[in-house]
Amino acid sequence: MSAEINRRAFLKGSLLASAGGALGLTAAGKAMAAEGTPKPDPAKAAPAGNALPQGKIGKLQFSRIILGGNLLTHYTHSRDLKYVYNLCAHYNTDDKIMETLALAEQHGINTVSMHNPPGPMAVLRKYRKQGGKIQWIICPTATIGDDMKEYTEQVRRLVEEDGCEAIYVWGVHADPLAAAGKAELIGKAVEIAKEHGALSGVGGHDLKVVEECERLKIPADFYIKTFHHHKYPSGPKPDQLKGAYAEHPGYWCRDPEATIEVMKKVEKPWLAFKVMAAGAIPPADAFKYAYENGADHILAGMFDFEIADDVGIAKKVLADAKRTRPWRS
Predict the structure, then answer these.
(1) Topology of domain 54-320, per CATH?
(2) Read out DSSP for 225-274?
(3) Are 325 and 265 in contact (CB under 8 A)?
(4) Taking the chain, what is the end-to-end CA distance rounded to the nearest angstrom?
(5) What is the pLDDT of residues 217-261, one digit of tens each?
(6) 27-51 CB burial, b ≥16 within 10 A, e <16
(7) N or C: which end of the chain has fewer CB within 10 A?
């Protein structure tokens, strides 16, 4: 009986202690919220002597690492782990995205790239109104076809109303256009952005997008092309490479070796994305592979707590990089 009483007393005490601890943490959290936790200041740039290297495209300077937008738009490419999309949305609130943008600027990242869903775009606008200087590379989601009215209007708003510095053709649109022999429509979209005074690029997962644009001499200012190796545990096997990209198994660059060879001959700047295969390849491995095999800039999706480490990795890789393709920016 004595042992049973002691057991019950222990359990009761443990539960009360746990509850008290949780209540204490909650109270502490509320107190911090009431006082206001310090927010990153975009005006506090990285020290000049340790700045993140940049490259020039047109008249603009772009950091060698660019903040990718998928985590900001909550599209995580999480394969069959569907809960991660919801988890990302709960973590990357509007306020957290504002902090992330400011942290990126603090560490020398001067550009963000994403498509244009209304919610995240509203956050970018708010960030600018509050003094943020980060540049935008945006791909409009409007359809590209014979009637370019909606696409033209999206470009107009982005450039004239929002001050967007660079526009590019979304790979989701460019891939099927190139595959269907309609790359001239990609050229039409490129010209629309140029007519509105923005830098104008082309994105794609399919290497044929770049090949067709080069063949037709489409005057893009840059390419945004997927690039990563397949040496990761969940990477595709040779017989699984059915298309330009796939979510299951997760790959976004079907033929990295062919990409290296094609891009060697391309004189336009190359912004590589999906370099970590949506989180499957560690940054040090991914960045080294991308920079040393020809990428001029990389887009990296990062949570706020990853930015400092990833920028540090990029600086080290860039300092030691051995390339055969000349820097094109």
Answers:
(1) TIM Barrel (3.20.20)
(2) EE---S-STTPPPGGG--SS-BTTTTBS-S-HHHHHHHHHT--S-EEEE-
(3) no
(4) 80
(5) 999 999 999 999 999 999 999 999 999 999 989 999 999 999 999
(6) eeeeeeeeeeeeebebeeebeeeee
(7) N
